Amino acid sequence: MALGAFLAGLLLAETEFSLQVESDIAPYRGLLLGLFFMTVGMSIDPKLLLSNFPVIMGSLGLLIGGKTMLIALVGKLFGISIISAIRVGLLLAPGGEFAFVAFGDAVNQGIMSSQLSSLLFLVVGLSMALTPYLAAGGQFIASRFEQHDVRSLLPVESETDDLQDHIIICGFGRVGQIIAQLLSERLIPFVALDVRSERVALGRALDLPVYFGDAGSREVLHKVGAERACAAAITLDSPGANYRTVWALSKYFPNVKTFVRAHDVDHGLNLEKAGATAVVPETLEPSLQLAAAVLAQTKLPLSEIDATINEFRSRHLSELTELCEASGSSLGYGYSRLVTKPKTQSSDSSNGNQTTEGTTALGI
């Protein structure tokens, strides 16, 4: 039953109900977590620990050292810095609660002796007790060797408590940086969040209000004044992170209008269901700009290029809206309602290459 409950939790974590389930069980999580560690502590046999001290300490060192090196290696292969990889390795080095479930089933099935199970139980329990010290060690390594201390990049309420009707930019990548630049030029108040310290450091170097934090966290959103914000531009790299941020803003800060980029149609539909005010297909506008640049080389008049691009944009967004409505979403692709038609062009000049103010050569 314990293993089945564990697997059921893993399956639920991958569904659209995961955030709601997490919110529902939050009041019980602290109580059950405390009960779990009390059970682990009471199950430790001091006599067994003393009688097998060298074996247990050796196994403990092998567990922590092996997992740290393995996780650090995997992290390095995925492109994170060596210091961050070591820090992650130290955080994940202790054994997990799944080990207790696995050991119990192994004993019941005769795969493992009860004495070996007790020894491994001690090793895992001690490794979990060392978690705070391993985390502190990782923080010490990061503060000594990393160029930027993440703690100095965290949002502080005193720095954002004067913001009112501001914009929250969730994700300070390429798209987020462009949005921040446009808002800065128009003197529109904003605050940006990102979980990559190098991006945050870049924004702070430019004297921009960029902070380190998970935009999907209710506490982080509160620290940047989400209850007083008017809108949020969600430009995170991960589709899952985008969905989680939209869900958190919709649930805890319904006053904030959310504008989010979608990876594909299915992702856009899920974002609409999560409560997004408007969804922008991330490949649409770059594709249209590239198509417009190519069409310009065919000697077509700019007015005809604009008309072609705008007609395709309208048709494409209408199809997405119809698809979204057919799926049961009441909003549809909200971006189609936000796209304004370009100003009517004056009559073309003799060479057909003149456009009026308000319409660009790329038709956006």
TrEMBL record:
The primary site where this protein sits is membrane
Which subcellular locations apply to this protein? Membrane
What SUPFAM superfamilies has UniProt attached to this entry?
A: NAD(P)-binding Rossmann-fold domains
Any one of the GO CC terms: chloroplast
This protein's membrane topology, according to the annotation, is: Multi-pass membrane protein
Q: Where are the transmembrane segments?
A: 28-44, 56-74, 80-104, 116-135
Q: What PROSITE patterns does the entry give?
A: RCK_N
Source species, domain of life: Eukaryota
Q: Which residues form the RCK N-terminal domain?
A: 164-281
InterPro entries, from UniProt? Cation/H_exchanger_TM, Na+/solute_symporter_sf, NAD(P)-bd_dom_sf, RCK_N
Ranges for region Disordered:
342-364
**Any idea which UniProt keywords this protein has?**
Antiport, Ion transport, Membrane, Potassium, Potassium transport, Transmembrane, Transmembrane helix, Transport
**A GO molecular-function descriptor:** potassium:proton antiporter activity
Q: What is this protein called?
A: RCK N-terminal domain-containing protein
